[in-house]
Design a protein that fits this description.
By secondary structure, the protein is mostly beta strands. The chain has two helices and ten strands. The protein has a single domain (5-9, 35-203), classed as Cyclophilin-like (Cyclophilin). It is globular, with a radius of gyration of 15 Å.
Length: 206
């Protein structure tokens, strides 16, 4: 994995305001065949519905990390109110966790980065995503794929716990030293009090 995924989402003017949650796609897959994942955090629970039909490579990759326990005791290490919350890469001591190979970017799936959706974080290399993900706290359509501009692959949506995401987004943040695979580096937008994913597990449809 190319580290420094905190640079994953380019600074940009954001679009649509918070408003009500608008999900990105109508799931063609029956609920009985649709994976759900519960993120149990120290701020509350967040349930994700995964788009296995829209982003099969990304969903399979995400579930491998879930099933291996990779996300347990990780933190949301990048939090920007009225934008997104990002996690999946660092433990509570801000040490980057080892990951598997990067995956191909499925951002051409026409699933939009709207409020409540979940997308893969990456570096400037479109095909560099591995374990880190972010939850869109507002609609960020400029993160979508468009001709000549790689986007960020949406692969899930929050179906329960968006109030928890909103609360996480208001956390006080600052600058912190992180240990990455390339050495130590200062990161911005790190919550002062750790926001911990205690566990990530598959669950039945809510």
């Amino acid at each position: 994995m190319k580290s420094l995924c905190t640079q994953v989402i380019l600074a940009m003017a954001l679009t649509i305001g918070l408003g009500s949650t608008a999900y990105a796609t109508d799931a063609a897959t029956p609920d009985s065949d649709t994976p759900y994942v519960l993120l149990t955090t120290n701020m509350g629970n967040i349930t994700l519905k995964l788009y296995a039909d829209k982003a099969p490579i990304t969903v399979a990759n995400f579930l491998r990390y879930v099933d291996s326990g990779h996300y347990d005791n990780t933190v949301f290490h990048r939090v920007i109110n009225r934008f997104m919350v990002q996690g999946g890469g660092f433990d509570v001591d801000m040490v980057e966790k080892p990951t598997g190979d990067a995956i191909v970017n499925e951002s051409k799936n026409r699933v939009h980065n709207v409020r409540g959706t979940v997308a893969m974080a990456r570096t400037s290399d479109p095909d560099s995503a591995s374990a880190q993900f972010f939850i869109n706290q507002r609609s960020n359509l400029r993160l979508d794929w468009s001709p000549g501009k790689p986007g960020y692959a949406v692969f899930a949506e929050v179906v329960n716990g968006m109030d928890v995401v909103d609360f996480i987004a208001t956390a006080k943040t600052g600058r912190a030293l992180a240990t990455t695979t390339q050495g130590q580096a200062p990161f911005n937008d790190v919550p002062v009090e750790p926001i911990i994913v205690n566990s990530a597990t598959r669950v039945a449809a809510p």
